[in-house]
Design a protein that fits this description.
The chain is an alpha+beta fold. The chain is about 40% helix and about 25% strand.
């Protein structure tokens, strides 16, 4: 009301912080910290996989293990479960966080806890998961209940019909709330009253208006603790109403003055009106929650309301009536020292005839315990004579506890602000930093809080200041920003990806005065997501490549086989040139298929213990011819290099492909380097690449001084069919083949490069403690097709491939039996009277598999040897057969390879086995 009457003045008192300052400070830090996750849990498929300490305490668990592994439905009250499941499905479907939801969780001891929950979809250990942020809203619910109870009291006062009007003046927005009686006194209705103090002040009689304004100014400036005034109101119909008004200042997050306005029109007219009004007051006093009692001129109780009896710890009003109230409730100071009644402010009303107000006093209960109190004492007149006083008091224990709690809360939230793992800052609209926490300082790499506070968000922090402009525009729309991603710049120049959540706060002028923002550094998270997406893409391409390879294997086997047969039977002439072209193209296609299989990790490996230094030395001459004389080859091979277990042929292919790639990158010559070293991958490598298994490795580094690669090319360099060469100069399978070989060998490969600075490929293969075996000499190259006369059973479900295989063997003199299924092959063997020297079988067949058919056949024909033929789909089974010592050929199989391997199994291996048996 003061703004309608005058402008309040006076300087703010210095010294200890006031309750208003404490409340404002506490609310500021509470807003900051309430935005932080209080309790966090992560669940995958409904199973809890992570909880933080706040979550453990919220669920009243003894340890995190009491929660981990359990289903979240165990902790959700059943009536919320369906909605929670719906929100989880929505999070997975949309990939965005849910809106906050109030719910009830069940703690480990069965007790309920009111929380506000937000679900956030994340990736946890490579799988989709939900991060849940739970905020304990118990205190907020209690505050809402308390406010609701006070609202019911106000409604009760409004409905009482008495001439005591209740009012609450909000000094911040200069509006007032009234009870129904206040509307009557001022001559307004809820519909006609705007709620503004100016409209209320206009009804005060002009002769009283300045006096009332002066009293209000004294209260607002701190010169007086209580507002008390009697004045006249002039209603629209011209009638005059006398009001006795009293009010006090309170702090509850914002400045308020609350009070009562008593219609004393009748008191001004007649003594009879005073008596009638007294009865009405008595009725009101008996229904109010505040303690009110009356005393005579001797200080003895003349009446008291039920609240007085309750607050003083008595059982009935009779225990107080006629008793000296000073002797009962005001006899001693807080420390127990006597309090003479002639010093008691309560008696000012009966001695001097004026009202008094004391904000901090101690009163005593019936059980001799004390409590902090605030009281008002008003004189009572009858027939123009002072007859006593009416005293109103409030138990301020809650207020004192609230002040203490606010101080503790401020300290607690300041500690949370300082110790938060998230960055937190306060800033002005122009980008000036007002406050930052230590996590923010560390995140941006500054040496101290003071150093960071000297920086400006636009100039020093945002990598692109226009990003901040866009974020501020969001604040203008909703006064809050959630999950805004942008890039920041550290002191050392490193770029961070951060996620911002915060709110804008308005000043008294209605404009934004500051922003409170929480910052989450998600740089590493985004890097891991990019790596994961790349890995998924490579895996998908590999699966596609493997599927194509399977079909090509069978087709190429038929094409190359028929070309071989036609070349043998055809007379020399021009047509042979066409067949040679078909055969050559088939061989190239077979090589392409092998590269695809290497990338998709579908090749069957023949791993042995290898010494990389020896392999590099052996292939050195080949590399020299391959890479050209204008490129210098530099090798740096570590002595005492550990061994690896890998397929020698594939390791040689790695070197050949990388050398070819380096040659193309150095058209004008340069240096091609090969280095080996023992190495270890540890926690730092795991942090950088989450899929890495720490341990001992052998590092093979292959580099060149060529033109290098841009970041875009480097990110795609291992993709199959991706090439920067001109059309017709490359298939784009060289590096993808290297990638597949390394991965299938249990290793890792990373490339570092930049334009103009060459490229280095670092390959890590697991180190083993075994020693490499001496290399076996190559068998003599054979040009003629081997021949034989033994009986061979061919088991292959592809008809065309089976026909061409049988014709290869028949043309070389072998007696051939054939079957498309394992059960049919076993029946043929049972009916065959002769020995079956060899079974040539596919690994995977409909019905009975190749290995199962071979095992059954050996029971009736123990003399039978087995030669397996494998496609990509049978890799796990085929790899196991190789480990067990079986002989295996990979599709597509040429005529020469088939006949040489048949000859080896029937003659060379049997001879070796016989010598071993004799020896």
């Amino acid at each position: 009301m003061a703004e309608a009457l005058s402008q309040p003045g006076g300087a703010q008192l210095h010294g200890a912080p006031t309750l208003e300052e404490l409340v404002e400070s506490e609310q500021r830090f509470r807003k900051l910290v309430e935005a932080l996750p209080d309790a966090i849990l992560v669940h995958t498929d409904g199973r809890i996989v992570f909880v933080n300490p706040f979550c453990v305490r919220l669920h009243k668990a003894n340890s995190p293990e009491k929660l981990l592994g359990r289903n979240i439905s165990e902790f959700i009250r059943p009536d919320y479960l369906a909605e929670i499941e719906r929100r989880i499905e929505q999070c997975y479907a949309t990939g965005t966080a849910s809106i906050p939801m109030e719910m009830v969780v069940i703690a480990c001891d069965g007790s309920p806890a009111a929380v506000e929950a937000v679900a956030i979809p994340i990736c946890w250990n490579g799988a989709p998961a939900i991060e849940v942020v739970l905020r304990d809203i118990k205190k907020r619910k209690e505050a809402e209940q308390e406010a609701h109870e006070w609202q019911k009291r106000l409604e009760l006062a409004r409905k009482s019909g008495l001439k005591i009007g209740l009012w609450d003046w909000n000094l911040v927005d200069n509006t007032v709330m009234w009870s129904e009686e206040s509307y009557r006194q001022f001559g307004f209705t809820p519909e006609s009253f705007s709620g503004h103090v100016e409209d209320a002040a206009s009804r005060i009689h002009p002769e009283d208006r300045e006096r009332v304004a002066k009293i209000i100014r004294e209260v607002l400036s701190g010169k007086a603790e209580e507002y008390a005034a009697q004045y006249r109101l002039v209603r629209p119909d011209g009638t005059v109403c006398w009001i006795d008004a009293h009010g006090v200042m309170v702090q509850n997050g914002s400045k308020h003055m609350i009070g009562i306005g008593v219609d004393i029109t009748d008191l001004k007219r007649t003594e009879q009106s005073l008596q009638e009004s007294e009865e009405k007051y008595r009725l009101l006093l008996n229904s109010t929650a505040e303690a009110i009692y009356g005393i005579d001129l001797n200080g003895n109780c003349t009446f008291c309301n039920p609240a007085t009896v309750k607050l003083l710890g008595y059982n009935s009003t009779e225990e107080l009536l006629g008793k000296n109230m000073h002797a009962l409730l005001h006899h001693s100071h807080a420390d127990g020292a006597p309090y003479p009644d002639d010093e008691c402010e309560i008696y000012v009303a009966v001695r001097q005839g004026r009202a008094t107000h004391v904000a901090n006093e101690v009163l005593w209960r019936a059980d001799r315990t004390s409590f902090p109190a605030e009281y008002w004492s008003y004189p009572i007149h009858k027939n123009g004579q002072l007859v006593g006083a009416v005293v109103t008091f409030l138990d301020r224990s809650d207020r004192k506890q609230a002040e203490h709690a606010i101080r503790q809360s401020e300290e607690k939230y300041r500690k949370l602000f300082e110790n938060a793992t998230y960055g937190i800052f306060l800033s002005k609209p122009d980008g000036t930093l007002l406050d930052v926490n230590p996590a923010m300082v560390a995140m941006l790499g500054y040496d101290s809080k003071e150093e960071l506070l000297s920086r400006n968000l636009d100039r020093d922090i945002y990598n692109d200041p226009t990003d901040r402009t866009a974020i501020l525009s969001q604040f203008r729309n909703v006064a809050r920003v959630e999950n805004a991603e942008t890039q920041w710049r550290r002191k050392d120049g490193k770029i961070l990806t951060v996620r911002l959540n915060g709110a804008a706060f308005l000043g008294e002028d209605g404009k934004v005065s500051r922003y409170n923002v929480i910052v989450d550094d998600i740089t590493e998270r985004r890097n891991l997501e990019a790596q994961y997406r790349q890995a998924q893409k490579m895996e998908a391409v590999g699966l596609l490549a493997g599927g194509i390879s399977h079909d090509f294997n069978n087709l190429l086997g038929v094409i190359m086989g028929n070309a071989d047969l036609l070349l043998q039977k055809m007379q020399p002439g021009p047509d042979q040139r066409h067949l040679q072209a078909i055969k050559k193209a088939g061989g190239s296609a077979a090589q392409l298929v092998r590269q695809l299989l290497a990338f998709s990790r579908k090749q069957v490996l023949y791993p042995t213990v290898l010494d990389l230094n020896s392999i590099i030395t052996d292939v050195g001459k080949i590399l020299r011819r391959l890479i050209g004389e204008d490129v210098h080859i530099a090798t740096h091979l570590e002595a005492g290099l550990g061994s690896v277990r890998a397929d020698r042929g594939q390791v040689e292919q790695i070197l050949m492909n990388l050398a070819t790639n380096a040659r193309d990158a150095m058209p004008s010559g340069g240096t091609f380097s090969i280095r080996t070293a023992n190495a270890e991958l540890g926690s730092e490598d795991v942090a950088r690449y989450c899929y890495v298994k720490p341990g001992r490795y052998v590092r093979l580094s292959v580099g060149d001084t060529g033109m290098g690669m841009s970041e875009e090319i480097r990110s795609r360099v291992f993709e199959p069919f991706f090439t920067t060469k001109e059309q017709g100069r490359g298939t784009g399978l060289g590096l993808s083949t290297v990638y597949g070989i390394v991965k299938q060998s249990g290793g890792y490969i990373w490339v570092s490069s930049s334009p103009g600075a060459g490229a280095t490929f670092d390959i890590y293969l697991p180190r083993v403690d075994e020693k490499p075996l001496p290399a076996s000499p190559n068998l003599e190259t054979q040009t003629d097709y081997p021949r034989g006369s033994e009986t061979i059973l061919v088991l292959e479900d592809d008809e065309c491939l089976r026909d061409i295989t049988c014709e290869f063997l028949t043309e070389s003199g072998y007696k051939v039996l054939q079957a498309a299924r394992g059960d049919v092959a076993l029946e043929l063997a049972r009916q065959c009277k002769d020995d079956i020297q060899l079974l040539v079988t596919d690994v995977v067949l409909p019905g009975v598999s190749g290995p199962s058919a071979a095992a059954s056949l050996k029971e009736s024909h123990p003399e039978t040897q087995v030669l397996y033929v494998s496609g990509y789909a049978e890799v796990p089974v085929a790899q196991k057969l190789v480990a067990e010592g079986a002989v295996l050929l990979q599709k597509p199989v040429s005529r020469m390879d088939l006949l040489k391997k048949v000859h080896e199994v029937l003659h060379l291996r049997q001879g070796c086995d016989a010598r071993l048996a004799q020896g």
